[in-house]
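Reference record:
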Amino acid sequence: MDSFKVPRLNNLPQTVERALDILEAFTNSNEALGITELSHRVNLNKSTTYRIVQALRTRGYINQDQGTSKYCLGYKILKLASGSLNQNKLREIARKHLEDLSKITSHTVQLTLLEGNGVVYIDQVEGTDIFQLRLQIGNRGPLHCTAAGKSILAFLPEGELKNIFKNSKPIRFTDKTITSINQLREELRTIKRVGFSFCDREYDKSLRAIGAPIIGAGSKVMGAVALVAPYHRIKVKEVSFYGNLVKETGLKISLEMGG
């Protein structure tokens, strides 16, 4: 059988590249592979191949058959693939609802995913007014001081919420950022009761935003939808009006995502 070959990338660390080579070697095989076969496919000596395989096995990316001692792709690969499919599905389902909300309000609408101790922006519909929010898709934001993040926190199970607070201390971005855990928890209770969050210049001193969670299958919080505008374009007396629109958008997306 021909050796497994891929283009080499000069700026990729060698160990990472070798690990990827080993994972990709399994995509060309319908059978479990032993260390000897793997080492031939990726052009590595057996000791190096074995060491990398064991690291991948420990992390769940490769499984070992105890009867044959051969290896196959592990459950973690399926988890990664599932995550990618869910993200693409969420963007596809949410797009129309984002556009509808932006059209009704003339404001920019963002779609985010929960990732670790932050949010990742995966889509955006620009508002029709003169203000344009230049967001790079894939950018990350904090949970404690963004509308999307706070709406996510409010609907997380208590155990997950405690872990987040334990692993990431709230950082101050503006003079309005809430950095007290007790004060933040009090606000999260209000957000959960009304169904939407309001962020008043807490992350960016020029912006106000309103967010609502997106709940997927199994009542799992997937991410959030957020409406964003310059602070003078969303008056405090309008928060309830916009909040209900954002909440309705989040509910529509959640329903289509199985929530």
In short: Residues 79-256 form a domain with the Beta-Lactamase fold (CATH 3.30.450.40). The two ends are 47 Å apart (CA to CA). Helices lie at 14-25, 35-42, 46-58, 75-105, 147-154, 158-167, 181-194, 239-256.
